[in-house]
Amino acid sequence: MQNNQQKDLLVIQLNELNFDYAKHYIEKYNLVNLNSLIKLSHCYTSSENEYDFLEPWIQWVTFNTGKSAAEHQIFRLGDVKNLQEEQIYEKIEKLGFKVGAICPMNTVNRLKKPAFFISDPWTKTIGDKNYFNNLISRCLSEVINNNSQKKVGLLNYIIIILSIIKFVRFKKYLNLFKILSKIFFKKWYRVFLLEFLLHEINIYNLNNNITNFSSVFFNGAAHIQHHYFFNIENFEGDKNPEWYVKKNEDPFRDTLFFYNEIIGDYLKLNKNFIVLTGLTQ
Fold this sequence. Notes:
Layout: E1 8-14, H1 19-28, H2 32-39, H3 56-65, H4 69-72, H5 88-94, E2 99-102, E3 116-118, H6 131-145, H7 154-167, H8 173-182, H9 189-208, E4 213-218, H10 220-228, H11 251-267, E5 271-276
Parallel strand pairs: 1-4, 1-5, 2-3, 2-4
Helix pairs in contact: 6-7, 7-9, 8-9, 9-11, 10-11
C-alpha cells in the first residue's frame, strides 16, 4: 500500500498471484517494479477457514462488501446479481467521489454515474454508457468464455484491432509487437495480449476521466498458474509433460516479466494504490 492521503486510490487486483513463488523470480531477475511492491507496507488479512470458500469469485465479493462468505452468500460466478449488500464501489460513490472499474470479478454495477465501468467476462451486469466500452465488454466475454473452442469471430477481431488503435499508446507499440511475435509459438501469450489491452484501456480511462477510486482486474496469473504451475523454476515436484509445454519454458516467469512492465506504469501515476491477489494483500 502506497501512503499519501492527498492522492486518489487505485486498486490493482492481481488475481491469485502466488507471491511466495514470485519472490524467487523477483530477486533472481531483478524485477524492480514488482520488488517495489514487496517493499511497500503490507496488510495480511484473514480468509475463510473452509477450503471451498477460498474460490476467487467468493473472495472478491468479500473484498467488495467486507462480509464473509457466510454473510454475503455468494458462491458462484454471476450470482452477485442476487447480492443484498452494498459494494465498496457504490459506497464510495455515495460519499461524493468518482468511481471507475475495469473487469472487477463477480461485481454488479450499481453505480449511478461511473467514470467508467467494464464488467468482468463472467458476470452479466450493465456497463457504463460508453458504447465502445460495452463493445469491449461483450468482446472479452465471448473471447474468454469461448477460449476452449478457440473461437474468436470476425467481429471480435475487428473490436480488438479498433481497441488497439484507440487505446494503446504509441510508445507501447513495441511491447505490443513483442507479445504478437510470440503468440503463435507460446500460446499463453494470448493471455498477455488481452491483459495488455485491458491495461492500456485502464491507463486511457485514468488519464481521461476524474477518478477518486478505481480498480483494475488481471486474471493472467491465475490462468497461468492453473495450467503451468509444474513448470515454475522453484517448484519441487513433477514437471508438465514435454508435449504440453517444453521443459525449458516457464510461463509463470513470462507472466512476472509482463506484470513487472505494467506495474511500472502504475508506479509512475500520481496515485495511492493497493495491490490485492484475492487471498493476500
